[in-house]
Amino acid sequence: ASTAWHLGREALVVHVAPRGPGAMPLRPGYLYVRPQRMHVRTLQSQELPALLSLYEHLHEGQESSPTQDEATPAWTEAILNPRCRYFGGYETDVLVASCTIMVIPNLTRSCRPYGLIENVVTHREHRNKGWGKAVLRAALEFAWTSGCYKVMLMTGPDQQGSSAVIGGGSPLEP
Known about the structure:
disordered N terminus, alpha/beta, disordered C terminus
């Protein structure tokens, strides 16, 4: 079974992972998900505690997340900004992946904005299952519908897994 989701200027076909004896093998380049278990949406204001908990997996062993009281002013500003979105990937009702995108006004390229994606994180127990790509695709959909002419993924020099999130020969461009 498969379902086509329209994402900006591209179509992403999500295939249900085959199971059981005699199931066809998985095909490279396809994103496989379990039915009704992977859900990606914009985070809501009350989800700051879940996001801060997930951020413990972003820079493991390097820095701790701020407390909810420390983070609330920045979170409130971000949530109220129409050019900022936090996307979350949920397995059942648990936040297991997230990324942030900012759409930046621009005076070149016919005044078309550009997007910056930052803080892509997947919970350690849910990595290598397509969650990173799923939240990135949601961020890209937001960018393309906002008129962005390009989107840049920001990574640090110590982000060993970031190439795996976007690699695999499946470009995330329109």
